[in-house]
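pasting for the record
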Amino acid sequence: MSIRPHAWPFLHGVIFDLFGTLVRPQRPHLSAVGPNSSDVFEEANTAGLLRWAAARGLPVPAEAAEAVREARRWMWARTAATGRQLLNREAVARAAQRLGWPQDPEFVEEASWVFFQPEIAMIAPYPDAAEVLAALRSVGLRLALVSNASDHRLVEAVLARTGLAPYLDPVVSSAGYGRIKPDPGIFRAVLHAWGLEPQQCAMVGDTLDADVGGAQALGMRAILVTMDPNPHNDPLAGTIVPDATAASLGEAAEIIRRWMNPR
């Protein structure tokens, strides 16, 4: 645990990231799909989608898995290049066109949601996540979530499955907001809902540019958590410096308590 000295006002609100912060990311290395993705989940989701398609009598040629992966890579590449969150249904529609699957909106929506079912079943929270959130709520802190994700329903389903939903309000995703962290507007959406200033709030996340840099640019303080080090951070080390680092959510909670009562 490390904390940079600052003369901050009392802390009133904390925003958490989701994947790699409250739930395990299944991301041992840089993803071949995108910076906000996990190859473990991508493979499971793709396989699940293709099984579903085959059961419906749709063509599943040998190149089907690559068609889905290419569409997902396209989605995240365009998202990263523009800052606008493309949605998973756009990727599914792209793959469906290549594979000769139906193109109607109802089919695409259903297929897009089917894609995430294996990931939702596999996801697990960090062991102390619920305990930490409950403890922070009990001392009067406002808690929220801001997550980069290609489907808001995925975020809601993960929070429901892990039991973390009751502690977080509001829940903001890039899919719902339309732009990805580090866009300042996605953080402001929470601050406006709370009626708090950036200096009264902190961000907890595992990504230097999206979480730490985005929060700091707005005037928030930021904690980088390192339970499962994010390889996306390696090129940014030393360029973006968090206000504190924590090797567990418990350590992050201790830092937050100190910021609540600065001496």
